[in-house]
Write a structure and sequence with these properties.
alpha+beta, four-stranded antiparallel beta sheet, 212 residues
Length: 212
């Protein structure tokens, strides 16, 4: 399980009640315990939502929590060895002091970019060349549009959760219009009669949308 996956925040609902909000591993273990306590299935299934995207996730704790199939075999085969390494084996192990020549990769990913000739000409004239210029342009755009991007992402996440959980609740269509128009008073008015846990999670997801 990757670090990003294990640290992502998720929320469990049963019906319209919020049961748990935690990291992915904790949520998986909760699902495991729930299934073991209800082997025939519970009257209301558990729904898991991603706190970042608002999307409903279909998690399988059996596949994510199960150890690798070959783990036991590896443990059986990996008997402790007391023999000394041969000279050839020692030579095959790179020295810790050995350093490769060149710049560190720093997580750089190479992908194709399609531009017009005049764009390439301009980029190649910039300090550091085309790649450095593109990185500066992207960072400048990210900083300039950070609030707008955050609003857009929060709007989409809120709508995704509303679709899954509140599509049949009164005032849903009006609440959606208020959400995309970024009209907080109207949004709160249309959702004020919704279940408390649904409202609370909507407020959490939509917080970046509204002006402070």
């Amino acid at each position: 399980m990757s670090t990003e996956t294990s640290t992502s925040r998720l929320t469990i609902f049963q019906g319209q009640q919020r049961l748990l909000q935690a990291d992915r591993l904790t949520v998986l273990r909760y699902l495991q315990n729930h299934d073991e306590l209800h082997p025939e299935g519970s009257p209301q299934p558990l729904w898991v939502f991603d706190d970042l995207s608002g999307l409903r996730l279909d998690l399988n704790w059996r596949s994510e929590l199960a150890p690798p199939a070959d783990a036991d075999a590896d443990n059986r085969d990996a008997a402790p060895s007391t023999t000394h390494r041969t000279a050839a084996a020692e030579a095959a192990i790179p020295s810790r002091s050995t350093r490769t020549v060149g710049r560190p990769k720093l997580g750089v990913v190479s992908r194709e970019v399609t531009l017009l000739p005049r764009h390439w000409e301009w980029l190649n004239r910039q300090p550091g060349g085309a790649s450095a210029a593109l990185r500066r342009l992207i960072e400048d755009a990210r900083n300039a549009h950070a609030q707008q991007d955050s609003q857009r992402a929060a709007t989409e996440a809120t709508y995704q959760f509303m679709q899954a959980m509140a599509g049949d609740l009164p005032g849903f269509d009006e609440a959606c219009r208020a959400l995309f128009a970024h009209k907080q008073p109207a949004f709160l008015l249309q959702t004020q009669a919704w279940p408390d846990d649904v409202q609370a999670y909507l407020h959490q997801l939509s917080r970046p949308i509204w002006p402070v």
